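As described in the Methods, two query proteins were run sequentially through the folding procedure within a single session, without resetting any intermediate state between them. The first query and its resulting structure tokens are shown here.
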Amino acid sequence: MDLSALRADRALVSCLAEVHGEDALLAGPDGERLPALYRRLSMRDPDSLLGTLKADNRVFPDNSPELRALQASCPKLWNGPTYVLRGFEDDGERLSCAEGRYFDAVTTCFELRSELKRAVATWPGDPARAWQAMPRRRALLDGRAGGAANDWLWRGDGRSASLSISCLLVVAEHAGHCWGVARRADDVGDDPGLHHVVPSMAFQPQADAPAGGYSIRDRLLRELAEELFGLNEGADWRDLAPLRDLLGRLERGDARLRVTGLAMNLEDLRPEILTLLLVSDPNWLASYRNTMRLCRIEYAVGETGLAPLEPWRSSGLERSMPEAFRRGRGTVSGSACVALGGPVLAEWLNAGG
């Protein structure tokens, strides 16, 4: 990343810190502040995070400059169904969700991101003036700042806060461990050209899935089958040999899946469910590595999807951000997934897992 882009990234974080408080921003393993709020969690059953699915009758703009630009530049764009954040259940732990549409997220959340980046580019050294150049964001927060603004954002009000899922996939091999990471294709709608953890996905309904697809675990495993093993759209991921094998390992305990936290991307005010999947038996990778085929729709040609876990070996695991995410080369949600999943991964590996 060139120095001008790095300065722009720092200016954006500085501007957000003025509104949300620097201490509230997620600290990456290298100590740098990321433009995200976070909630640390540790849930052995990912679906225990989900509350009852509710109706959402809100109406959002049906067009916007951001949507028109995306439609012109990204032929893959479609108005698919999404799950959106509507706050927390009364227990304060489980997510309250509703069904939305992707274009609603574009005309609300994506517009907020564009406004933020334009303002920061115009006033990179003056957070106060940049803030005044963001009328949509100021209207949304309605005078809230600091903790009041941060708490309010988790309610999902004022926008179609579509949920995503990121997975920190770590797989044992006979020489150590490797992890899922790849550079996103240059023609995708979100974060083109940046590195992201693999698998990652929108959390969205699936008509052919049990309960309509309202399951973090099933959505994650399906995306793993699609992004790393080339599963065709509409096919049943449970019929794929590596996924059947993985399901058995999850039941036996030589693979583990856990929610490690929630991140709120302050660029577009969309939430991300952060998960960690560790496959501790190297025989799984040895058996299926030759069948892996990274999804070319999402990721750049030439990417393999798995990389050696060199930057995180031994005690450096909790402190060192992998090179792919340093100096602004990675996505915010991917960095958050690494930051919140790293300590849990270190605990598992140090325990011999």
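Immediately afterward, the second query was submitted; its sequence and tokens are:
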Amino acid sequence: MKLVANLKLMPTPSQHAALLDTLATANRACTWLAGQAWDTQTFGQFALHTLAYHPCREQFLLAAQMVVRCIAKVADAYKLDTKTRRRFRRYAAQPYDDRIFRFRSATEVSLWSTAGRLAIPYQCGARQRALLVYRKGEVDLMYLKGVFYLAVVCDVLEPEELGLESILGVDFGIVNLAVDSDGTVYSGDVMEQKRQRFTTRRAGLPRHPTRAARRTLRQLAGKQARVQANTHHVLAKRLVDTAQRSAAGRALEDLTGIRTRVKARRQQRPRHAHWGFAQLRQFVTDKAARAGVPILLVDPRDTSQQCHHCGHGARAHRVAHERFSCHRCGYTTSADFNAAQNIKHRAAVNRHMVAQPRQLRLALA
């Protein structure tokens, strides 16, 4: 399991200027390399190295290994598609490997720059320092809002999955971010209020072309996304902790492609567009892997229309957005809780239908 530890660099003013110049020069080189690849339709890393390595070194006066990293960066950018010519921001992140970067001590790193080797102190928390034991591969030098960071990739061993004593289903939604099959409801009202407040503030500021308005827009940039990500992190941790304490697996809906299948009314479109179900699922999956909690994905079709009590399914069971009432057996409950129960039961059935890897190994033995 690959995790990223972010280290905050503490350079002196002269080192700060050298790092800025290094990023700017490396990204100019990457843009030039991307142009060479586009003009000659040479997108493979080895072929691009043969074509442009020596001209790049002579033109930008970069170290040999820095040029190699720039070529790899451009080749990776073209792996997505070769229909658009790539260009790189002035201070875009730049990869480093062990030939141009190393840890000098527990508080200092050494990395190459256009001004030579720099020994720069860094800061990190206890969690990041524990992850550094598993460091593997490249690191990325990043410049974010005036601060330099190193993103260090750490290959951490995954713990063994817990033995499943039960399964907990969870239904993701827009009004309620999640509803657990044990009856716990995680409301999305607070996040929706913040979204509306951010939208209102952003909508009114462009009418006032002043420096204060532009400054406020810069301050608001990304704030809504950070609030939403933090809310999802907290929710994902609670869902995983609950499953870990119960020695239970987590059953989630596979909502891939739901935006193309579901049409929202005009009044609901802004809220629907900001529904971060994919981010929440990713956070739950990542935290579950670190905690050894198994994740089971189920088909979400008709989970909100089928009665988990008798199994009968019909659209008419949803008498209101939040209420479920079965016309066959008379069972009445919250629609989201009913969906969470259906997800739980489907995951249990799917689990028994598919042999686990350990069972297969025992059978083959």
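Residues 2-155 form one domain. We note this only descriptively and draw no conclusion about the first query from it.
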